[in-house]
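Is this the right way to post structure tokens for a design question? Let me know if I should format differently. Anyway, here goes:
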């Protein structure tokens, strides 16, 4: 999972300021690397490196990023490695000069790499973002070669072909010299991408921004216009009927913001975006207080406390200078970081039975450390509740959970909740449950879609694969998941042989685990 942003300013304005501020607002989406590229008089100005946004960019670097148009990226690696060479954005010189930043994952990467080899394209990294960029360059060059495909139409057709070739979940921002800013998503709309505009200071012209989350737009005063719509499945190669484009010109510069795609009725979003990554703008008689795991679990904990009629308390102080533990690359770092990140307030735990509420339980690393901290602070009993259903299946669309062996809930059936609780050190563990007779994900799905509709979003469905094992794209089967497990072991030195020899079962696990109602 990564954060991407694109900015198109008025001709006499600098894009680097809003790009930098937007990346700060998206820092929670990736902490391994950051990069910004701008275009000034037909030349790219690029700076990227490993590290947090504030560490990568100082005054000297920002001053050198000239121009009124640019894109930026914060990286959390899900494909390739953590090498500085794989920091984004990437660029190629032909045709025109194209740069691209990407959030997501391609599930047909080996096939696409072979296609590029046949086109005599050299890949310098293992990143699927570089693959996307080269495919876009090939398709753009191919469409420019046709006399009937000129200007904006050639860009539209190039993206159309790219969408036809690539399977997976991805959202991209790109710059094409002489054309402007380009934003597009996969046909299922799995990865998020929003866009908005604001009036340029002292001008009647609008500036535009595209970002992974609307919170970045709001933070910088951009009016949210909606989601970049997911296109329908593109037609076969060279067929007519490209997705629609909405150009936004800036004076004589002819810079364009292209929103590609006629909104598909089946646009989907990753369920986990809403449960964990996006910023947040039974045992009841035995529980003394409800305490959230900050920050994203606060809303769920408040509602839980209200429903149970039990006091809600803040039990942890958070060090905001420590990164998010889920997106750290190694298990040892995650364990160490939890204690650096959170400090218990002893008076809230001493002598009490506490219900800790988190947005989700994935590997169990954070949960076990927090439970230990609660006990050390004096809690008599510690119960753990997850606002999300059990996470039992790999996510292959850009979130770092590619092997079931790493997922706590995948190792236990619904009849083994007590054993799961013991593994993380809890007295009991609870997952959210639907009313009797309703499918497990219905309530949570309905709540998310209702909120999305209220905000004018085009989302009509959700990718729930990490909960139910049902994948919305082709190429995702047991063999593909097995190859991911083997690649992960090779890249990260995973000593758990289960990660290589796990047999994936793609039908949903039985429902009915002990639930908090």
């Amino acid at each position: 999972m990564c954060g991407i942003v694109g900015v198109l300013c008025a001709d006499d304005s600098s894009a680097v300021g809003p790009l930098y501020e937007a990346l700060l607002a998206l820092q929670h989406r990736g902490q391994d690397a950051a990069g910004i590229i701008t275009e000034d008089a037909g030349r790219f100005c690029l700076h990227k490196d490993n590290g947090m946004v504030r560490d990568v960019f100082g005054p000297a670097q920002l001053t050198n990023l000239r121009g009124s148009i640019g894109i930026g990226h914060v990286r959390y690696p899900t494909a390739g490695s953590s090498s500085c060479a794989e920091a984004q954005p990437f660029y190629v010189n032909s045709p025109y000069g194209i740069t691209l930043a990407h959030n997501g994952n391609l599930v047909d990467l080996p096939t696409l790499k072979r296609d590029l080899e046949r086109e005599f394209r050299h890949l310098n990294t293992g990143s699927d973002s570089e693959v996307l960029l080269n495919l876009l360059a090939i398709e753009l060059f191919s469409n420019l070669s046709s006399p009937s495909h000129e200007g904006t139409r050639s860009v539209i057709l190039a993206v159309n072909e790219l969408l036809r070739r690539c399977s997976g979940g991805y959202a991209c921002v790109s710059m094409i010299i002489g054309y402007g800013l380009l934003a597009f998503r996969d046909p299922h709309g799995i990865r998020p991408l929003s866009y908005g505009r604001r009036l340029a200071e002292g001008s009647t012209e609008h500036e535009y921004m595209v970002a992974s989350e609307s919170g970045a737009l709001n933070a910088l005063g951009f009016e949210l216009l909606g989601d970049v719509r997911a296109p329908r499945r593109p037609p076969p190669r060279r067929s007519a009927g490209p997705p629609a484009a909405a150009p936004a010109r800036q004076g004589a510069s002819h810079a364009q913001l292209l929103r590609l795609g006629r909104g598909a009725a089946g646009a989907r979003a990753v369920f986990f975006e809403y449960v964990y990554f996006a910023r947040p703008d039974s045992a009841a008689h035995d529980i003394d207080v409800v305490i959230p795991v900050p920050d994203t679990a606060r809303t769920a904990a408040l509602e839980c406390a209200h429903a149970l009629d039990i006091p809600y308390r803040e039990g942890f102080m958070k060090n905001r200078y420590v990164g998010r533990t889920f997106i750290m690359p190694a298990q040892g770092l995650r364990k160490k970081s939890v204690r650096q990140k959170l400090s218990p307030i002893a008076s809230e735990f001493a002598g009490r039975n506490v219900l800790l509420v988190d947005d989700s339980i994935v590997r169990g690393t954070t949960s076990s450390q927090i439970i230990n901290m609660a006990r050390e602070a004096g809690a008599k009993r510690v119960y753990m509740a997850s606002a999300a259903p059990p996470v039992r299946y790999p996510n292959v669309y850009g979130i770092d959970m590619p092997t079931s062996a790493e997922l706590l809930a995948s190792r236990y059936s619904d009849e083994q909740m007590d054993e799961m609780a013991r593994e993380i050190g809890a007295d009991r563990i609870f997952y959210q449950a639907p009313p009797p007779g309703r499918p497990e994900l219905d309530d949570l799905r309905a709540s998310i879609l209702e909120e999305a509709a209220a905000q004018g979003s085009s989302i009509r469905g959700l990718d729930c694969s990490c909960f139910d094992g049902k994948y919305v794209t082709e190429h995702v089967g047991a063999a593909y998941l097995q190859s991911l497990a083997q690649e992960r072991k090779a890249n990260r030195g995973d000593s758990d042989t289960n990660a290589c020899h796990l047999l994936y079962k793609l039908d949903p696990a039985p429902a009915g685990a002990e639930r908090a109602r």
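Format looks fine. Someone answered above. Worth noting: The longest strand covers residues 98-106. DSSP finds 17 helices and 21 strands in the chain.
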